[in-house]
Fold each of these.
Amino acid sequence: MSKRLHCMLSRTRIPVPVPCLLHQRPQTVLGVWSYGSSREFKHDSNQQDRGSGHNRRYLTYAALVTGTTLASLCIYYYAGDRKKRALLAASPTSMVQTGQLKEGLPIYTLAEVAEHATKPDRIWVTYGHGVYDITEFVDQHPGGDKILMAAGGSLEPFWLLYAVHKNPTVLAMLEQWRIGNLKEEEVSHLLSNMEDPYSQEPRRHPALKPASVKPYNAEPPLELLTESFITPSDLFYVRNHLPVPEVDPDTYNLEIEGIGVKSISLSLHDLKTKFPKHTLTAAVQCAGNRRSEMSKVKSVKGLSWGPAAIGNATWSGVRLYDVLKAAGLEDDHPGVEHIQFEGLDTDAANVPYGASIPIEKAMDPKGDVILAYEMNGEPLPKDHGFPIRVIAPGVVGARSVKWLGRILVSEEESTSHWQRNDYKGFSPSVDWDTVDFTKSPAIQELPITSAICDPVQGDNVTLTPDGKMVVRGYAWSGAGQKIVRVDVTADRGETWHVAYFTGQDKTKPPHHWAWTLWKAEIPIPAGQKQVELWCKAVDSCYNTQPEKFDNIWNLRGVLNTAYHRVRVNIKT
């Protein structure tokens, strides 16, 4: 973006949460959300807020535009403390000083910094050349005492894991705690020994369009989606929350434990040889697919996905049902409510990505939940969960946990942030001052959606000899429902044209997991220079899409299912 708006806190030393080091299982958001990277700075609600209600709320946001990254600064305050905190503009020069050598300040060694790792000694950290005393901030840190993991040491390892911290707003906030400079040769030593947690990431196809790089999240060009009913693995959208783990298939073990089962450990060989192989074709979609459209109504928090955060693949593996039965779980074991999954991808505190699905889905043999080890007939690619991932068809992609390491049979849903405090929908009237994540259920089955893939927004389109515009797209509905109709209009709903299907699985609902590809030929009046195409789909339960995003807007930007609209030009 060409316009830059730099905002930061007042330079008064108010006790606001500045550099959040670790963030998982959040109850509320500390405050920098990057549109480009969508990493939120959060605190550990399970340790801080469980049982105590929502003692932190959201105060306000300040827009920040730097290059192509739009960030929002959210400052929390304790309930009962309603004093508003001012956000004042700061010059770009005040921001670039963070971590740089600053003349006139004391020089410290790493040994001296290490002596300040507890409150009685004051808590110091380093960043670049800078030495910072963050003692006053520790008690207010949204991540609880996990901030002490950096006490007496460097912030860099944590900020490498959560790369969005390297944001002008966060850096400017950190500078408020500056007390000195780190000795020059020790800065060089730190940097030369720094390991990037993303240094071993797999290679990705250059056609993928990243929404963030660390962690890597990307979607293919929209017009490619309708080229094949099965999405090639290299062009399947990627949704990672943390660095891709390195997993040795020879030593891999899947741990299964919990109520109603005996604790067992299964190797990759066990999974491939001791259980029947099951294959299905299923679409997997991110909850934030098409978020960029919703954000045009009002800003939302999350990755700016287009309509291509969805793909359709053939998955092979073992039924979760078969594995749980082998572990001794009975179909109606009392007290079992959820099957929890934990990945091998972890944050700096060694907390894994986690999610869960209801027992009714997990223990339904026809629910087709599988522990997949193949994608499109080949071993799972690293980005898609090698060596084992969950595929919970018809359910939001966030529950299909990748790099699966542990299954827990439980009386409750997963306690992870991504289950309890994310991937939930809210009323359009709920904002960050009033949101209560305990009031909404976690997204499981997704609603019906569709999108126009060809032509794309702004295309110059040549009509057929008989004056028609060829339009292609996809449609999909969660919970195993089948698409029965797709309607397309070029005159804002005055006339609807029914598309015909070019790709659809023959499986019957409610076990229809694949998407549907469609094509329509729309007559365009002679002389018309521009049209806006709309599409909407109907499933086997006669669910259809809402007309506009205004009435389904939600602060997390999920469940983006309104009519898809594309404005194109007509070549004459």
Note: The two ends are 32 Å apart (CA to CA).
Amino acid sequence: MGEATTLNNIGGVYSDLGEKQKALEYLSQSLPLRRAVGDRSGEAVSLYNIAFAKRDQSNLTEALTDIETSLKIIESLRTKVASPELRTSYFATVQNYYQFYIDLLMQLHKTQPKSGYNTKAFEASERSRARSLLELLQEANADIRQGVAPELLQRERSLQQQLDALEKRRIEVLNRPNHTPAQEAELEQQRQTLITQYQDIQTQIRTTSPRYAALTQPQPLTLSQIQQQILDENTILLQYSLGKDRSYLWAVTKTSITSYELPKAAEIETTAKNFRAAVTDPRYRDIPNRVAEANNALSQIILQPVAAQLGQKRLLIVGDGVLNYLPFAALSLPGKSGENGNPPLIVNHEIVLLPSASTLGILRQNYSDRQAPTRTLAILADPVFSGNDERIKNSSSATTEQAVESANPGLSRSRGNNNVQFDRLKFTRQEAQIIQALVPANSRTESLDFAASRATATSPNLSQYKIIHFATHGFANSTNPELSGILMSLVDENGKPLNGFLRLTDIFNLKLAAELVVLSACQTGLGQNIQGEGMVGLTRGFMYAGAKRVVVSLWSVDDEGTSKLMSSFYQGMLKKGLTPAAALRAAQLEMLQQKQWQSPYYWAAFTLQGEWR
């Protein structure tokens, strides 16, 4: 094995020096040795390196055979990893293989445009993304805990309880004015240890579950399956793949596929970050020129090639990398002149985001045979975050609380992950009252104040509701996505601290049958952006728990502006009978037409992910 590795590495050095033939000689000696010792992972590496060298010699067809063999090995190795976290991290390490494969196919497409290489490249792109999510969604429907040893399930419950107790202790410690960095670090260390143990026990449950063993690996959809099962005549799928040397975009309709070559990932990342900063930075909120400049630079790259195909169709967008952070609704097509330039995409298009097209296929499978909930709406809003809140018995700080609110009219629905001093969001109550008035009393439930608690959010009763609406603070953790979450009441009626953090680990354990979950809070669409998996955060947690679609935000949203948007969104759904995707678009258009709210900062943060029908 050591000899094979050394030969492979010498081949790599020659390849870097530009001596491709010499590189191939060494790599070709490495390959049979790796096969002889059964080093499957090393065999995949050698084949990838051989394909790379052959591509550089313009031997594209042989390079294709080698990379396809390499990817077969990777797919096989991937399925042998039981832990979804480890499977995801393994898959992230081999994304360059898929990028190389896609690029090779698209180079072949240039020379033989009628041979279907661009279809193969699109299908490779689909195979390279959100695979762990597909497997999790399939697992969600299978009740994998049935038939598992009771002691394993008891250990899982015990670790959940320990995590809850630690969270409560953490809140108490961080609320003390004299707490030290050392105490904070120790609590964080304990939390990481418990999370690791919790993931380990879940892996053991999977590996010993008869139901899990019986599951077949879900296969990503092919082009024709996507065209038949996902798209209709009025919908176009835009799928992006960002690469080191070149990036690609495929536009797929019910009857066609068109592919476009885009600049390398680094160039797209720079312009995308500039656009996001222009939309979200308060300094630019009232400087439309700054947004327009950033928009033109980005849309020239990622929308201009496909502009002529869009018409007024619904856009299903599968982003990649930095594109997962983008408010596509606020982007305009470049090129048309006019006093105000082009309108944002939302004016002519309904926009839906997907981690992959195949995700929607498996979501539809999951809820096709599910019993529909009987009640319409559950709202959790305006939780109590502080012992100084006026709603606490014997609190003498009502005036202080009101002073804080009046001094912060532009409060955002977000706080840093370790900050437990959260401001009350007064507009969440107004939002809840307007929304609940649209639904008959016998078909809704409102949990406000202390009732907007973690206990309410994790109650089995939520499975009776079609729409579940959270209006509160949100927090995204890009290092440990399982620590992302939304904030419920942190104190009880007497001001005693509670664990009010509803984290991703809790959300995975919910049992919902919701048509729609709305996270009317900050950064709820963010998390950890993992290569090959996309955004790992709250959206996938709620989809796993049983939500058909989720509305989430891409940045720290304004409290009052969000309240206005949500009121309009629910009017569209509950009074005008619009689908959630159409209702969100109508609400965003309404904001766009009002001077006070027309900046995309106020209306473009919220996106719909999942089912559009």
Note: The CA atoms of residues 9 and 27 lie 8 Å apart.
Amino acid sequence: MQISRVALLLTISWCFSSCQSNHDCKFQIMVNRTYGTGLFSRGFCHFLGIPYAKPPRGSRQFRPPEGVNLQDFPAKFWNLTQRSENCIQYDFENNGLNGSEDCLFLNVYSKPWVSHLQPVVVWIHGGTFNFGSGFSDSADLPDLLINNNITVVTLNYRLGVLGFLYRERESVTRNNGLKDQQEALRWVQRNIAHFGGDPTKVTLMGWSAGSAAVSYHLYDSTSEGLFHAAIMMSGSFLNPWAYAPSPQTCLSTMCEQMQISCKNQGKLRETLEGLAIEKNQPLLTPITFFGMEFPCFVPSGPYPQMLVKRKPNIDVPLMIGYTSHETEQQIKFNYMENTLSNYDFPNSNRFDIIENYVRTQISEFNRTNLLVAADLIYGMVKFTEEYTSRTKSNTFLYKFSLGDAHHGDDLSLIFRETTYNTNDKTLDTTIKESQITSAKLVQLWSNFIKFQNPTPSLQPLLKVLWLPFNSSKGREYLNIGHNLTMENFSEDATYKIWDGFYECLYHGNCINVPN
């Protein structure tokens, strides 16, 4: 939805109407005669806790979201200065459930006094589809992107049981958490111009589970037209934690945990409502993949490994990548030698042989590397190859390798600028290098959001052109370390081993697996 420049200036001109200082003040916006108060802090506007859908409780529990606009409500004045509650999830600190069902809110961060609509990035948080919020992963500090004239939107979506429980022939909708994200994107199309954002230049960006969610939207026709470019950071739907191969197994496990019967077909919703599932669900229902435990309630449907073999519904420019060591630390900490898998595969005939081989024939060091590939890195590169082979838009692959880069180490360089006060010259050097790398990352990400190309031209900070990935011409990617270098992706030994297992378990091609 476009609005005239005059209307835009009228909308944003309310920003400083009640300013008292440059550090922390309130301002007003006007959206179709609906007034709202937000915050002005750190040099930009914060609109917090904007409802994009009705509370998904009562008759709306386990149903698709029902979208709203601010002007749909009886109230004509909105206080957009307070954070909304998180969606219901496990609270690690208090070892219990925390959050609310009334959680479908988003946040908008934008510059005041803009003379034209700015490109928009919509951020989807990580947390294996069971944890997190629009304020996690440092996304509540989008200062660096705002400074590059980008409007930032973050959002909550239903998690775990309430977002992803499913059984066929029940009055329970599949993948409501993903549908929540779509509804937030529809809100952006209808309303973001009032906040200075351009609805024709929306980039969908996510990290970890949020990145996997982006891949789901690329293959979903109902997401078409809701975004125009995508950024995937350390996650795709090909990662084992991003897909529930057997929702029935998850449901049965949960019912056993709750010591109830869920076998009455067609009565599942009624059973869970009677138990107040939103308050009494288990803290975590796990599923195990090669000894790695993941949350059970995540997106389900057709196997992504089959889905990725067809042309995506949405062909848009894509930036995608991972860190050099990814989930190595988590795997070393969580891997349990004696925990057998209960994960389902399309071709399960060779699974026991493969799992036994991994446990008994591969050294602990190589097994860790293999599981890091299986857990995340393989799925990123495989998704890149499959997507680029069936789309016309450019895809840009990267590896973030500054130091021993693990899962999420790149986030703080994009979302916030950290300042230090130290007399340690060695530490000063490290900090300076990190700040330089941060400036490079922000410039690359901002360029992509604005131009769908991370290096539209050589620039003082960016002295190398990032070439699109092409699986038949070198498989080039950008290595992001102290320097930016274009390199060719090459498969190491563990990558090749997992590729053989992947082809066997998902596609029945078992020529490269042990007998």
Note: DSSP finds 15 helices and 17 strands in the chain.
Amino acid sequence: MNFNSKAALPDVETLSLEEQVAQMFVIRASGYLFDHQIRYPEWEPTAAHLKHLIANLGVGGVLLPVGNSGDLILRTQQLQSWSKIPLLLASDIEEGTGQRFDGATWFPPPMALGAIAGKDAVKAEGYAEAMGAFTAQEAVALGFNWVLAPVVDVNNNPDNPVINVRSFGETPATVSRLASAFIRGAQQWPVLTTAKHFPGHGDTAVDSHLELPVLPHSSDRLAEIELPPFAAAIAAGVDAVMSAHLVIKCWDAEKPATLSHQILTGQLREKLGFNGLIVTDALVMGAIANEYGPNEAPILALEAGADILLMPLDPANAIKAVCDAVAAGRISPERIRASVERIWQAKRKIYEQSAQNHPTTQESALSLLATPAAISASANILQDSMQAGGSLPLPVDKKDKLRNLIILDDILLSDVLGHHAPAIDFPKQLGYQLRICDRNSDFLLKDLETGDSHPTLLQIFIRGNPFRSSAQVTEAALAWFKKLLQSGQLQALVVYGSPYALKQLSADLPKEITYVFSYGQTIPAQALALETLFGHSFSLSQTF
């Protein structure tokens, strides 16, 4: 069943309580077609179990985290074919559809637009609108109808490990303007958009995927910094708002926002006047899962005012628990019905738009992916947000024993490095010898104690990501950086990802040392950074 089917949604009244409750759940599943490709079996059910949850229990939606674009077209069609009621199909594609799905366009992180806004606000706004439009276009091509973006948190804490470069910037004005532009762009296509994470996750140094952050700010401070981007997103017509797993003491000293009636209903619904979908952040995250049971958390979120319960640990039992809560009088049937009506309103909106610009064949869908215009927009954002200093281009003497030292958090999790990656291949063409260090290879630090001297190109891949305990440069990277400086071996520095990491390192970087910074970590970002560093273009090697 395609989402642009002409079939009308059934009247909510005709659904059983169990069917209504199931519509409020969006579960996570593998983006790949086969069970042996499942990466996170604790969160991603097998095909048989997934089909049961959709076809028999009637869950309302599925979140797909990663996959291949070609396969995704088949995958989303498969999921819709299992469902009696069209599904909401969602993904966290904050940096373009290619961030999650190979083959589509991967944009630089939103903070790159914030950097451009500091120089040219109008240009940045245009980029943000284009990014929203291309993201939505490619999402629709793959079969998605719900974009879990934009992030509207104001990242005013450099130590924030979970938001970081996912934010458009450090001021409410910048975030408001760029997030609204992203929403306008996405509205050109039949997808829902989502402002997250209410009431603001930007000023935390704790990752809510692991622990529960606590914000001590006053109501006045929240009104000044955290809330304006949400108000702007609502004014721009955002379809959904995602809650944050954090405690806001001035509003509710006990419950996190996701489970707080004072916050979701009192602040978001009543004070900000938001009438769209309220969706929880993932209920499997440590900030919720570690404190509340897998069945109690969904009930508390519904009592707080949530319409959609995202990624419960045990969907079948969570649905039953909510139904039991209704039977016991803890939650009223009217409360459930109100949320399902909002879900129906969102689905009808997608229906109306889909008839006009939804791809009808696989060929037409593929034609919407990674178009020259989208790739050009991404490249322009990379170019205009890049920073460089020192003497450019960097002179290279192939007679020297050159070293290309790449440091990243975990190479096993990297999808931007390989023999074909410019960060590896381009220096190789100039005679650099490759060394790679991550948290799994700290033994390489023994090289610091040797007497060998090598002019070293130091490339660091670092950015805040969910499930990171820190947003700062790793100890290994700092140790190498300091040793190379002290020994006079540091030839040049390239940082990919976090401007906070660059700031941390540049405090000790002599002015004569050449550096390049890119917000992106992708293949195009690496190519642009290194071609800027060395002053000429490269072609990828044909042999490795």
Note: Confidence is low (pLDDT under 50) at residues 1-6.
